[in-house]
Each structure stands twice: as C-alpha cells, then as structure tokens.
Design a protein that fits this description.
mainly alpha, 7 helices, 2 strands, Arc Repressor Mutant, subunit A, 189 residues, 3% strand
Length: 189
C-alpha cells in the first residue's frame, strides 16, 4: 500500500482497486485497506493530502486523499532493499518488483542476487548428506519415512530452482531497462 502512495496519491477505495489490479495473487478487502491506511498513518509514513479534493463518497462523506510522507518514501526505499525470508520470498519479491521505480532498480538487482545465493545455499543443504538419491527411492529396503523426506526435499529443490530461474530473468530485464541498447538512427542503404 505504501508503494502505491509513493507512486501517486490516492483515497481508500482507489488504493484498494489499484492494489487488487496490480497484485492479482493477493486481494484486499475494504476493511483491510482502511486498517493498513490507519497503520501507515500511525507510523507517520502517509498523511492526508490537503492540496487535493476528491469529492464525496456515495454516502456523502468527503473522500480523504493520502500521500506518502518523506519518512514513508525512505521506509519504502529501505524495504525494497531489505532481504526477504526464503519462506515468503516469492510473494514479497513479486511485490517489490511490481512497486519498484527506476531509482530502486539497483537495489532490486542486489536483492535478487542475495536471494539467489540464499536459494542456492538452501538447495545445497537439502541435497547434502548420506540420503539415497532420487533414482534409489524405489528400493523396498529404504524405509518410507526416508523416501518421503527425499521426495519432499526434491520438491523444495524444484521450487527453489524455479525461484532462481525467475530471479535471473528479472535481473536481465531490470538491467536491460537500466541500460537500454542504443537505437540505430541511420538509414539502410
């Protein structure tokens, strides 16, 4: 929500619509939207924008326009650069990428590099040890709890590899956007 207000001012329902449009994999109700607005205001990260009028709601109440404060903008920049916990990384990184602006892109690249290293370390840890290989799992001599643990670890490795692939593609796109190739201006002969 703070990132949406860093982009541009808005009122509650507008913010709810923008959030739900941008983050289809998440969804905010009106009640949650206003709870988040209250939290952000209490933290000092957003404030009423006294310079803008937004009319009235259907019930006739005046619409309150909010904007990010300088402290809110700083907090947003700090959050963009903050490493993600691996257990919630996918959703959090998606949100950070969606809300990032060109000045944030170097931090997004740094974040994706750190998260990739974390994923690789987690994969290495899952694959280490004296466990049977995936090819050996059909051996009836191996206890089921060992087989099940290897299967679960294999699924987690596949998820982590998918995350690594996405992080690498994201970095390529962001770097390309930061340094677009020069356009040709000459005519063909």
């Amino acid at each position: 929500m703070l990132g949406l207000l860093v982009e541009r001012s808005g009122y509650g329902y507008d913010l709810q619509l923008r959030f739900n449009e941008r983050f289809r994999f998440l969804s905010l109700s009106e009640k949650v939207t206003y709870k988040v607005i209250d939290q952000l205001r209490d933290e000092g990260w957003i404030e009423r924008d006294k310079t803008k009028e937004a009319g009235k709601t259907e019930r006739g109440a005046p619409r309150v326009i909010y904007r990010a404060t300088p402290a809110g903008r700083e907090e947003f920049s700090r959050w963009i650069a903050e490493p993600c916990e691996i257990s919630i990384a996918r959703e959090e990184v998606h949100v950070k990428v969606v809300l990032s602006q060109p000045p944030d892109w170097p931090r997004v690249i740094e974040l994706t590099e750190k998260l990739e290293k974390t994923c690789l370390a987690a994969m290495h840890e899952l694959q280490a040890g004296g466990r049977p290989t995936f090819d050996q799992l059909s051996d009836p001599e191996i206890p089921w709890d060992v087989v099940a643990a290897v299967l679960v670890d294999d699924a987690e490795c596949a998820r982590l590899q998918g995350m690594i692939d996405w992080l690498q593609r994201t970095r390529i796109v962001v770097r390309h956007r930061m340094n677009p190739p020069a356009r040709r201006t000459g005519r063909r002969a």
